[in-house]
TrEMBL record:
Domain of life: Bacteria
Keywords: Cytoplasm, GTP-binding, Magnesium, Metal-binding, Molybdenum cofactor biosynthesis, Nucleotide-binding, Nucleotidyltransferase, Transferase
Subcellular location: Cytoplasm
Major site of localization recorded for this protein: cytoplasm
Main function: Transfers a GMP moiety from GTP to Mo-molybdopterin (Mo-MPT) cofactor (Moco or molybdenum cofactor) to form Mo-molybdopterin guanine dinucleotide (Mo-MGD) cofactor.
Organism for this UniProt entry: Sinisalibacter lacisalsi
Matching InterPro entries: MobA-like_NTP_Trfase, Molybde_CF_guanTrfase, Nucleotide-diphossugar_trans
The organism's taxonomic lineage, starting at the top: Bacteria, Pseudomonadati, Pseudomonadota, Alphaproteobacteria, Rhodobacterales
Protein name: Molybdenum cofactor guanylyltransferase
Gene responsible for this protein: mobA
Binding site for Mg(2+): 101
Similarity-based family: Belongs to the MobA family.
Length: 201
């Protein structure tokens, strides 16, 4: 099995939730991040968390915490670079990213992304009928220098950068609901509680 590092992206500012860490909000009696870890950990060889600020606030999860390698919160593309740099240090040949505010991510995410990545050093992004979900992607470590250069030049859009590098797509069903449903507002959190109850978990 090819070594794939899982990277959970939690570096955002959560402005629509009033600031703070969305990943630590309670969902079904547990932090939202716990649901993401539970779904992603079995799919990867190792798992890290991309987050800025004091890493101690995530100590309960027992994951290495890696900060953005560029300043001023440039967005999830910086988290992808952080993951690629960590992978290069650990010998992983690629990473799979997932957003920390998406507690229903597919349990076959990595397998489907790997199947879509052709050739083997291609980027693959998750998609549904509604479009791309670019924070859910497979990224080869061989692209880290190009990403560092483009970030320094001002690139910020994850999907645009990936597609400029010939990204492939792995398409997922979005019924009975979109598995990439992410929690941005209090209303989203209430809906997630309903979805979680419907799953019986």
């Amino acid at each position: 099995m090819t070594t794939t590092l899982g990277v959970i992206l939690a570096g955002g500012l959560a402005t629509r939730m009033g600031g703070g860490d969305k990943a630590l909000l309670a969902l079904g009696g547990r932090p939202m991040l716990a649901h993401v870890i539970e779904r992603l950990r079995p799919q990867v060889s190792a798992l890290v968390l991309n987050a800025n600020g004091d890493p101690a606030r995530f100590a309960q999860f027992g994951l290495p915490v890696i900060a953005d390698p560029v300043p001023d919160y440039p967005g999830p593309l910086a988290g992808v670079l952080a993951g690629l740099e960590k992978a290069a240090q650990t010998g992983a040949v690629r990473i799979v990213t997932a957003a920390a505010d998406t507690p229903f991510l597919p349990t076959d995410l990595v397998a489907r992304l790997e199947a879509a990545a052709s050739p083997d050093d291609a980027i693959a992004l998750a998609a549904t009928a509604s479009g791309l979900h670019p924070t859910f992607g497979l990224w080869p470590v061989s692209l880290r220098s190009a990403l560092a250069r483009d970030l320094a030049a001002g690139m910020r859009k994850v999907g645009a950068w990936a597609e400029s590098k010939g990204a492939q797509r792995a398409t997922f069903e979005d019924t009975p609901f979109d598995p990439f449903f992410n929690i941005n507002t209090p209303d989203d959190l209430a809906r997630a509680e309903q979805l979680l109850a419907g799953e019986g978990r």
